[in-house]
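Q: What would this complex look like in 3D?
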Amino acid sequence: MKKKDKILVKICVGTSCFVQGGADLLLYNDFLNPELLDKFEFEGCSCLDACKRVDNATGDETRAPFVMVNGKLHGNMNPEKLNKLLTDELK
Amino acid sequence: MNDIFIDVDCSQVYKHGQKIGGDVFLLSRNPERNQIVAILSDGLGSGVKANVLASLTAHMAHNLSFSPMDLTHSAKIIMDTLPVCKERKISYSTFSIADIRYDNTAERIVVNFLEYDNPPALYYKGSKNIPWTGETIDLQRKGAFKKELLHRQTFNLEIGDRLLMFSDGVTQSGLGLSMPLGWRIGGVNKFIERTLESNPEISSKDLTKAVVNKALGLDGLASRDDITCACLYVRRPRRTLIVTGPPFSKESDHILGEKIKAFNGKKIVSGGTTALIVSRLFEKKLKVDLLCWSSDVPPASKMEGIDLVTEGMLTLSKVATHLEAKTPVYDLPNDPVKKFIAILEDSDQVHFIVGTKINEAHQDPNIPVEIGIRRTIIGRLRKALEDNYLKETSQEYL
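A: Here is my prediction, written as structure tokens for the whole assembly.
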């Protein structure tokens, strides 16, 4: 697969994402389904500017860590969720 | 900040098998009085006893150098005070004192140099050794067990000049092994001249390390005496700028950009949002380096024109912790903190531009680690850099 055909996944490595689970996501090579690794391109991002939207009142949905897949922002991410998200993205 | 920097550093290896050394090097900078004092002392014997003697000598010389007293008189006081060795029935330790004074612009640097029984110090202009022309003073102290000759010289240091001091472990290295009479001062001189020719801008730290490693090699990697080399080098300062935190108001962003552009030296941007601002201002792409991180330090990024781009608070507090503990760079894992500290150790003057905007996300009580206050961490960094690494620091808020 050529690089440009791959779907871009941006992982936020800003302070609040990193300390709330973002560090685990950087180990994507270890926990992702090996088939997925080939279909996505992974990139770090110093801040997705999503942390400012975090609000306890809105529940878990918008909490750190954030990941952007194909231009769409996803919050409250963890390795299992990311695996599922990327699998769904390919369907 | 001055436009001239006096780089003083020292390397040392103890006698093989010893956990404590009989060579002591003391350095102190007193910026209020425009004075730097560097002292190298070698105590009689080796191990604890030698260390006590050398420490005593070095500290006395150090304190006396800051008094208005004449150096020759100070030397007499030191020799009169030293305790007598039980076995050898003499009190003895060697010393070299370099009392450096400069005026406010540091354009004129005067060194008052005094030496007693250490191998002669070497003075270089560029890579060329300049022979000594100083006077020799016979102390004629009462109760002296031998002729006590002090060598004394006052001279001016200019940009590119170096002064190297050694303990006898350097000049006597290889004695009876690879060389019948040891390395001797002539050999040391040749080695330094060659090193300076191939690397004219070598720092004091690297040059002294090279000399000590060579001496250790001549001793067959098992030093037979404490080996110490200290160097004093006058040069233009290496500067580093650390930009951390976004400016309080958006309108100040371009001021930040101009300040970064105008700065002559290495540049570090620490902070995700700050990096985005700088990347936008300079129209340069920011690329996160996913190979360089560790479990508690987020990855660094790359940007053209900036030497290092890191995350903010976590990286800075880790850097502060390591600087406070004086952790050697080679002991650190390959993460942004290591790169950060390597740049800092290699600079003489560090300037901080601290953005005062507060990141609301950091105030979230759910965050599992404590994220400190930027101002406090910068304070810690500056204190550690000044106290532990003798760097000059300054800061401004934006």
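A: To summarize the key features: The radius of gyration of chain B is 24 Å. The interface with chain A takes residues 272-273, 275-276, 286-290, 293, 295-296, 298-299, 301, 309, 311-314, 359-362, 364, 366-369, 371 of chain B (CB under 8 Å).
Q: Very helpful, thank you.
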